[in-house]
Amino acid sequence: MYSSSSEPVRLERDCAAVLVPQGEGVTLPAGSIGYITQALGGSYTVFIEGNLFRIAGRDADAIGKEPPPALELPGDADDSAVEQLVWKQLRTCFDPEIPINVVDLGLVYEAVVRPAEEGGRMVEVKMTLTAPGCGMGEILVDDVRSRLEMIPTVTEADVELVFDPPWNQSMMSEAARLETGML
């Protein structure tokens, strides 16, 4: 679960977290001691008392880290610029157990930027999971939604979990297959 390169951590306050891989929400008490096993995309996976937990970037201060900075977009940005930022944001979403973002894992089938009814923009995403029964499915969907709604001018992100076509390893980017040893 952790190695000599994992960073030791002590929770400075009570902190909301998600038990991995079950996906259950928990509160980790202040003073808990463990190790950061993954710090990618602004969230953290920590190993505490024999379990893995995911801590959202907004709670980074609980483990002595800085929350991610707010996203910026020029006021005159067109849909193309927003779409580029959408894909950049999607690449900040990671499965807590796999150090590869959801785009390179091949989990995102589609991301479309559309005008919203009350102004601004809506993003519609179709994505899948590596396994249909994954306990972290709704957590990943919520992570994608919340990260896309951080984009200026995006008023709503509709993230649909689909299983057709079923995910398989060939959907991974070459870099992801190389990283996981599946090349």
- How many whole angstroms does the radius of gyration measure? 17 Å
User: Can you count the helices?
Assistant: 3
Biggest beta sheet summary: 6 strands, antiparallel
Report the helical percentage.
Answer: 10-25%
Note the gap between the termini. Answer: 24 Å
Query: Got a strand count?
Result: 9
Strand content: 25-35%
In what order do the strands lie side by side in the largest sheet? 1-4-5-6-2-3
Low-confidence stretches: none
Which word captures the global form? globular
* Pattern of helices and strands: EEEEEEHEEHEH
Mean model confidence by pLDDT = 91
The structure class reads alpha+beta
Please describe the topology of this protein.
Blueprint: E1 7-10, E2 15-20, E3 25-28, E4 33-40, E5 43-48, E6 51-55, H1 79-90, E7 108-115, E8 121-127, H2 137-148, E9 154-161, H3 174-180
Parallel strand pairs: 8-9
Antiparallel strand pairs: 1-4, 2-3, 2-6, 4-5, 5-6, 7-8
Give a quick summary of the entry:
This protein has three helices and nine strands; from the N terminus they run E-E-E-E-E-E-H-E-E-H-E-H.
What key attributes describe this structure?
single chain; alpha+beta; 3-stranded mixed β-sheet; 17% helix; globular; FSCA_dom_sf; FeS_assembly_SufT_put; Fe-S cluster assembly protein SufT; Fe-S_Maturation_MIP18
Task: Outline the structure in words.
- Pfam families: FeS_assembly_P (PF01883).
- Residues 84-159 form the MIP18 family-like domain.
- This is Fe-S cluster assembly protein SufT.
- With 183 residues, the chain is an alpha+beta fold.
- The chain is 17% helix and 31% strand.
- It has helices at residues 79-90, 137-148, 174-180, and strands at residues 7-10, 15-20, 25-28, 33-40, 43-48, 51-55, 108-115, 121-127, 154-161.
- The strands form 2 sheets. The chain has a 6-stranded antiparallel sheet, with no helix packed on it. A 3-stranded mixed sheet has the order 7-8-9, covered by helices on one side.
- A hairpin with a 2-residue loop joins strand 4 and strand 5 (43-48).
- The longest helix is centred in the middle third of the chain and has 12 residues, at 79-90.
- The radius of gyration is 17 Å and the shape is globular.
- 32% of the residues are buried.
- The mean pLDDT is 91.
